[in-house]
Amino acid sequence: MLIDTHCHIQFKAFYDDVEDVISRCHEKDMILNLVGTQAETSKKAVEWAEKYDWMYATVGLHPIQEYKTYVEEEADTFITRGEQFDYDYYKKLALHQKTIAIGETGLDRFHIPKNIDPEIVMTKQKETFLQHARLAREVNKPMSIHIRDAHEDMMPLLSQVKENSGVIHCYTGNWEYAQEYLKAGFFLGFTGVITYPPKKTDPKPQEWLNEVVEKVPLDRMVVETDSPYLAPHVVRGQRNEPWRVEEVVKRIASVRVLSMEELEAQLEKNSHALFPNMI
Ligand SMILES: [Zn+2]
C-alpha cells in the first residue's frame, strides 16, 4: 500500500479540484497524512481526517509562519501569517484520535523576513520548536520536523528532543547530518527531490543526498510528496499530487535494487512504526 506520509491537499493550490485529486489517490488505495502549517490548515487537516478513514492529520505551526513573509515556490506563492504558537489550541487538535503527529515544526533559514535580524528569528523558531517537542511528549505522538538551511542550528537541539520520536521530513541534507538524526531516533522522509538530477552548476548537494538514499537503513525511511510542492522530476514544476509518491518509491527501489512490492511493504511497515496511531 502506498502511504504519502506528508502532504498538504488542504492548501489553496487544490481548492478547484480537490475531489478529483482525492479520487485519484483513492483509486490507488492510499493512506495520506495531511500536514498543517498554521492554525487554519491544521484544523482543516483534522476535519478531513474525520471525513475520510484513509486520511490522518498532523498539526503544528511551520517556522516560516511565525513572521509575515512572502514565499515563492514552484507550485505556489503566498504570504505567511505571522502567527504565535497557541499551545492550548494545538493541544486540542493534537489530542484528536486521527492526529498522528505534531508538526510541521522546525527551523528555516531560507525564508527569513528581510527586515528582521536573522538571529532573533532563529531564537524564536527554536523556542517554538521546543514547545512542539513538549506538546508531542505530552500527547505521546511523534514529531514531523522541517529543516531548511538549518542543520547546524538543529544539532544542539537534538539532545533536548532525544526522547521524542518522529521524522525529518523532506530530508535533503548529507550523510553526516543524516547519521545524527538517525542516532537521535528519527526517521528520514524522502520526497521527489531524490528524483532530481544533480545541478550542472552545483552537483554536490544532489550527490550527498544520493549517498543518503544509498546508505540509510531500510527500516528508517519513509516516503512523501509534500504536495503541492516538489513534484518529481518527470513532472517537475507542476503541482504535485500524493499518488505521485510512487515516483519516489521507484527511485529508492532502483538505488537499493529492490522490487517495488518489497519496498512498498517495507515502507508501509516503517510508516506504522513511525506513526503508532495510524491504523
Ligand atoms: Zn510540508
Automatic annotation (TrEMBL):
UniProt key word Metal-binding: yes
PROSITE patterns reported in the protein's UniProt record: TATD_2
Binding site for a divalent metal cation 1: H6, H8, E104, D226
Pfam families: TatD_DNase
Record has DNA-binding as a keyword: no
Domain of life (superkingdom): Bacteria
InterPro entries: DNase_TatD-rel_CS, Metal_Hydrolase, TatD-like, TatD/YcfH-like
A GO molecular-function descriptor: hydrolase activity, acting on ester bonds
Residues reported to bind a divalent metal cation 2: H146, H169
CDD domains in alphabetical order: TatD_DNAse
GO cellular component terms attached to this protein's record: cytosol
Gene3D superfamilies for the chain: Metal-dependent hydrolases
This protein's UniProt keywords: Hydrolase, Metal-binding
NCBIfam families in UniProt: YchF/TatD family DNA exonuclease (TIGR00010)
Protein name: Hydrolase TatD
